[in-house]
Amino acid sequence: MLRWHFPLRRLVGAVSLAATFATGCSNPEQAPEAQTPESSPSAELNVTLEDAFVAIPRQVSAEQRQQVQQKLDGVVEDAGQSFYIAIRKSELAQKWFLSAFVKQNFPGGVSYSAGSSLGTRVVSFKVQNGKLFVFDVDDRKTSSDVFDPQVLVEAYPIVSDYAAFNRVRGSDQYVLFDPVSGLNHFGVVGDQLGEYGQRFQVELSFAQRFRRISDGVTFEQVFTGYSDTPDPYSGELLEKNQFRTSGTLGIGLRKYSEGQGYTPTELPPLEHYFRSEPRLIPNTGQVKEVAAKWNIHPGMKPIKWYISDHILSVQADPRYTGYDLVAAVKRGIEGWNSVFGFKVFEAAVGDSSLSFADDDKNVLIFDPDDSVGFAFANWRTNPNTGEIRGASVYFNTLWLKYADTILSHGASATATAYTPTAKATKPAHLSWAGMKGTPLCELEAPQFRAPALGLAQLENSLQGASAALTKKQIVEQYLTHVVLHEVGHTLGLRHNFAGSRVFNGTPGTQRSSSVMDYVYDPDAVYGDTPGSYDVQAIRYLYGLSSQLPTDAFCTDQDTRLDPYCIRYDRYDDPLTFWYGPYHQLIIELILEGSATFDELSYAFNSYSNTEFQFVRAANPETQAYAYDLAMAQVRPPLVVPDGAIPEYAALADGLATRILSRLYLDPASQRGSFTNNPPNTPALTAKVVTDLKSILLNVDGIRSYASRRTAVDILKTQQSLPAYSALREAKNTLTAQLPTLSGDTLLQTEDLVARISAAISPYYR
Predict the structure, then answer these.
(1) 3-state DSSP call for residue 74?
(2) What is the largest CA-CA distance in the chain?
(3) Helix, strand, or coil here: 193?
């Protein structure tokens, strides 16, 4: 699932931002020299030195102020006022959480990582040689009683000659440093993202919005600079300089703590849960991970979630005044309380002062932008224990727009399925078997998923108007479902793409056992409360039950291993009642002239790839069944129906060749999740070889020479005795026909014979 609209743009944006956090502007071999503040010696500071961290006002010169205003163009809240930070000396050796969150990024905004957590480190401080050093001191890296490495994160110049500060009572008990002049400006994730191998030269960095909180401080760091690698798409995003990136980081420094009574949950055999950061077990050579989770328990104080107040402006939009958006989103957050049996989350709309980059806030960012095609979730965890310390969700108006304009006109209250015109025999039994600033989930909006492109005719054919839900219910329940999904990730749950297998198509049946499924959107409307799987998984994770989930489960990595682990599918038998019928409908529309292949190519390829993963990876019986579904309308000998369009036979020939080529010849990059050629199991091989031989010999008289040549190539690719035998027999048959042929037919047939001779001399590679 891509969070960017264009894969290349996503890569360039990620690399550019990664480079930003990988290297500072200073020579990496030498820390910056101590700086002289700009304020006059006679200036007096109205500050009291009591807290562990104190912001010390620092006037910016007129020249610097102008530079900030020109280069950072409004993203700095007060271009004339910045600050140093004073840290109490007695706190230097203590442990602190150091976190970073990308609040703004230009160009690209949220598509280039804005709104994302970059992770958390456990750090302490040490003064040496006129510099304040920051060390990563988490417990994960100790390999033995002998080897417990010190990992240097940052080095700040100490400001020693700020006369106004030095006159403040108690200043001798503090160390004053400049938070934007470190050796590695973005060291909080520098080594994690150094893999990109690029450099970023920071031209200007500025600190703003210092906040004292109960266990530390937060502030923001604004930066602008230049990468050594260009972004070819920056011009489209209004940044003319392809090398330039600007942004704002939210930084948190908070006292290290572990939740009282927090007990880690061991990882079960199946990947139901996100993993904590890996930790070395000293003296064993082993690495351990546990399930990431909050410190949730009965009697706890509810965790507060804030919804950004942009939701109120969207609510006031005349298009959406008929919906209670706040209530729908709150249900998506607080709906998880019923799973626990006590109040875990409470949600409220924040005011205009709320910043989603503040480390002490859990925020659902409600973005009025209806052009961004995804929603996603992140969290901040204690790297030592896997305890979740905070979370955020990004959500935008595109989901609302889709539900209002499209989904509410076609969400069927009862299951409907297209009945294939070409039948296939169904087998009796079908088998089925996270800290670099990476979001937990990037859920694509429906408009940006491959099957949706060019599929409007099919959607209209398969969906009827809702008979059980009002438009208001459809829209609000859909929003609730999407929010439930993302908040479920912040609780520790991974995807469960097997959830839809509980749906047998009858009214009133549960559409999915899990809101963590990627559910077909008309079915998602009915998933506005956690499902049976979600209840089982949450209660086990949080120690409320000793029973592991028993509902069917598969997750992201299984989508390349289990053909029944499919995103956005439907029904307990998706091959028979969903992908097979969809694929046959696409073929039918093309054959009857209702649509051209070009118009439906995206849908054809998408549904072909999903149907073909059963041919490639299911049990032998299902392989043959799936193949029959794919070829039923176009296989030889073809029967052209009465009243068919003149092009019917040629279209069927072309579609049959496309199907067989996708199975055996097309490059892996075009095949979807499963890229292997189908196995040479007896039942499947017999059907495929029969069809290929019939095409090669043109038994129905409608096969083009291009299709017949392709049949030779596929039989060669199969590398099986049945395929070899078919080629030999076809060669003999065609050779015997040569004396009866003339003109172009003779030349084309001679070429076929020569092609077969080359394929079987020798046949095996």
Answers:
(1) coil
(2) 111
(3) helix
